Amino acid sequence: MMNSSSSPVIIKRSQRSAAKAKSGGAWKVAFADFTLAMMAFFMVLWILEVSNMKERAEIANYMRTHSIFEGSPAPFEPGNSPFPVDLGGTPSVVDQNSANTLPPDNPLPGMSEYLQVPSGDDRPLAGKGDKLNSLIDGQFDSPAELSLLLQAFEQVAAELMAQEHIQLDIVPSGLRVIIRDNKKQQMFIRGQMRMTPFFEDLLLSLGPVFKKVQNKLIISGHTDSTAFSGSQYSNWELSGDRALQARQVLAAGGMPVERVAQVAAFSATRPLNEQDRGDSANRRIELLILTSAAEAELNQLFSPDNQNNAVQQAAEEAQRNQPVGRSGIRITDGSN
Q: What is the pTM of this model?
C-alpha cells in the first residue's frame, strides 16, 4: 500500500533567454561611406578655394560634357587629365619641346632658373595668364629688377588679403615697403611694442622673399603724435622697439639677420598724413631695400675713414678762419 504522506514532486521550469544576436559589420560600411563623402566634400571646398572663376567654369563644363557611361577615357588617368586647375606646378613628364624652356646662359635676378614656358601664346610676360617667373637669389638694382621684386611683395599681400596694409614704392635708393595699420586693424597694441597676430603673419610671409634678396635693408619705426603722459618712455623708444620687433619677426620668417644694415627710430617726425598727425597711417614700419649704390653711400657715411676726413676737414676750416695780421701771418694760440 502506497504511502499517501510522501512528499510531492516539484518540477521547476526555467525560461531560457534568446541568445543575443551578434552585430555585423554593416556599420563599418556606413562609416566608410560617410568618410568618403566627407573627403569628397572637403575636396570640393578646396578646389573652390584654389581656383578662380575661369577655372571653375572649365571644371563645370568638363563635368557636364563627360560621363562614365559613354566610354570616355578616365579623366583621372595621368595621360588623360586636362589639368583644369593650375596648382602652381608642372607635369613631371618633359615634352618634346623642352629645348625651348631652357633658361638663358646668365639669368637676371628675378627670373626663374627654369622658365616654365607653356605652348601657345600664354607665355610669361605676354599679357595673358599668370606670370610664371619666380624670384631667384640675387642683387636687385635696376628699375626692372625692382619691379619684379615689387610684384613678389604684391603677391604675398594678395594671398593674405593685406593689400590695404602694404604700400610699395620704387625710390632712387631702392624699393620702399610701408607696412601700416588702420582703425580696424592695428599693427601693434597701443603704447606697446607687441605686434598683433595678423601683422606677424604678414611679416613672417615676407621673410622668404627677403631670403632671396641680397640687398641690404633699413628698418625704421614710426608712430603718431600721441604722446605718453608722465613717462620716461617716449615715442622715440617706442618706434625703435617696434622696428626691432619687426626685425625679429622677419628673421623668424627666414630673412638672414645680416641683411639688415640699420634699424632706425623716427618717432612722429615723418608723418605720412601731415594734416592729421594722429592718423593711424602714421603708425607704420618702413622697410627700405637698398640698391648697391645706396648701400655704398650708407657705408661711406658711417665708415671710419669718412669720420677721420670730416675731423681733418673741420681742422683745416678752423685754420683758415684764424685772424690774419698785417704781415699776412695767421695768428694762432701758442699755448698747448
A: 0.53
